[in-house]
Amino acid sequence: MANKSLGDNRTRTSVSIFIVAGLCCFFYLLGSWQRSGVGKGDSIALAVTKSGENCNILPNINFETRHGGQAGSFDDSAREVKKFKPCRPRYTDHTPCQDQKRAMHFPRENMIYRERHCPPPEKKLHCLIPAPKGYVTPFPWPKSRDYVPYANAPYKSLTVEKAIQNWIQYEGNVFRFPGGGTQFPQGADKYIDQLASVIPIQNGTVRTALDTGCGVASWGAYLWKRNVIAMSFAPRDSHEAQVQFALERGVPAVIGVLGTVKMPYPSRAFDMAHCSRCLIPWGASDGILMMEVDRVLRPGGYWVLSGPPINWKTNYKAWQRPMEDLQEEQRKIEEIAKLLCWEKKSEKGETAIWQKRMDSDSCRSTQEDSEATLCKSTDPDDVWYNKMEACITPSKGNGDDEGLKPFPERLFAVPPRIANGLVSGVSVEAYLEDNKKWKKHLSAYKKINKLIDTGRYRNIMDMNSGLGGFAAALQSPKLWVMNVMPTIAEKNTLGVIYERGLIGIYHDWCEAFSTYPRTYDLIHAHGLFSLYKDK
C-alpha cells in the first residue's frame, strides 16, 4: 500500500510540474506578444501583404509604379538590398527638426530656438528608430482619450508638475487623463459648455479649431464628441512629451510654436482659435502674433483667450505679477483686437471671446485714424519658412466664406474657393469627379485591408492630399486624417481641404515631419514619389 501511495504521489507531482511548466510557457509567450506591440493591428501585416499580391480589385485602378522606365529593363535579383540597422536606444523619441540639443544653439528671443531647425545632410540619421522597451499597441478610441500605456511614453514629470491641474495621472502601467487643464481643472467638458454658451459649437457652424500651446490636448480631445476637430500644437520644451501624449491619445497634434515664422496653415482656415494659459505674449511686437492668428481665422470665426491677463483685477496676486503690467497687457490686446475688427462677445471669469467680423475690410475703412497696415503679399498661403509680418491680411471681400455649409454638409458640398474660381485649374466638375474617384479607391483599399474603419487605425496621414478626397471618403468618428500639402505641389489646395471641414498642414517631404516617432497608425501616399522624383 505504501509503495502504491508513493507511486501515486510521484505521478501527481509529475503532472503538477508539467501543468505549471505549461502555464509558465503560455504566460511568458502571452506577455512577450503583448509587450512587443504585436497584436490586433500589427499581426495583419503578412495577411495584407498576401492579399495585396493580387490587386486587380477594380479594373480602372492602377497599382503599378508611375515612375519612368520600361518594365523588365533591369534585373532586380542582381541588386543588393540595402538594410537599415536600428538606431541606438537614445534615439527612441528622436525628432530631427526639433532636436533639443541643436535648439540650444539658436537665439531664445521670440522663441526662435523652439522653431524648426533641421539637421544638415551629413548629420541625418540613416537607421531605424527603435520603439521603447515594452511598447504596446495604443488603446482604441475612445479609451485612448483617457488612457495611454506608460511604456509608450514613459515620462512622469507632468504628473508632478501639473498634479493639481488634472492634466495627467500615473496609475500602475498606464497614464490616465482626467480631462483637466491649467484653466479648466474641473474638466474640459464644463469649460467647453461655457464656451458653447457664446460660440455655436453644436450646430456644425464651428468645425475646425486651432489650439495654440495645447498641453496634452484635452481641449481638442473633448471637442471631438461635439463634431469639432482641433489642430493642436505645442513646442518640444521642458513639458516633456506633451504633444507625444496628445498623439498617443488619438488627438490631432504637431510640434510647433508661435515664434517668428508663419504657421504652416492656409489663410481663413479655422472657425475657432484658442489659447488657454498658453503663455504667448499676444500684445508684444505690435500685435504680430494676433495678426498671424487673424490670417488663419475665417471671417466670422472666434478667438478664445483664457488666463492672464483676463480678469487681472481679481487675479494679479495669484498670478504673482504686477497689476500695472497685466493692465497694460490687456489694454494692448484690446487695442489690437479692435484694429483687426474683432468684436468682443464675452468676458466671464478668466475667459474672453472675440469674433472676427465677416467683412473686416469694410470695418477698417469706417474706423477713424485707423493705423492698420495691410500686407502687400499677393499670396497669404505662401507660408513655408516665411517670416511673420506686422500687417493685416486683407480678406477677399467677395463673401466666399458666407457660402460655407455647416458640417457635415460641407464635407462633400462644393467648397467656396472652387465655386468662386479661386483655385486655378480646379473646376466644380473636377472636384466632383475627384470625390467619385476616391470613393472607388477606398472601396478597393478596404478589400485589401479589412481593418480600415474598424477602429484599429485612429491617427491617419495622407502625405499628398490633393483636394482631400481620401480623407472625405474615410470620414468616421473612429479616425482622423492629417492632410499634408507638399510645398512643391502643383496646386495649393489646402484651403479647400479646410473648407470641407478637414484639417491639414504644409510640409516639405525632403525634411522630417513635426511629430514624434510611432504617432500614425496608417500612412497613405498617392503620387508622392512621382512628385519628388529627382528632388
TrEMBL record:
Chief location of this protein within or outside the cell: membrane
GO molecular function terms noted in the UniProt entry: methyltransferase activity
Membrane topology: Single-pass type II membrane protein; Single-pass membrane protein
Compartmental location: Endomembrane system; Golgi apparatus membrane; Membrane
Transmembrane segment boundaries: 12-30
Organism domain of life: Eukaryota
Enzyme class, spelled out: transferase
Coiled-coil annotated residue ranges, if any: none
Keyword Endoplasmic reticulum recorded: no
EC number of the protein: 2.1.1.-
InterPro entries: Put_SAM_MeTrfase, SAM-dependent_MTases_sf
GO biological process: methylation
Assigned protein family: Belongs to the methyltransferase superfamily.
Annotated protein name in UniProt: Methyltransferase
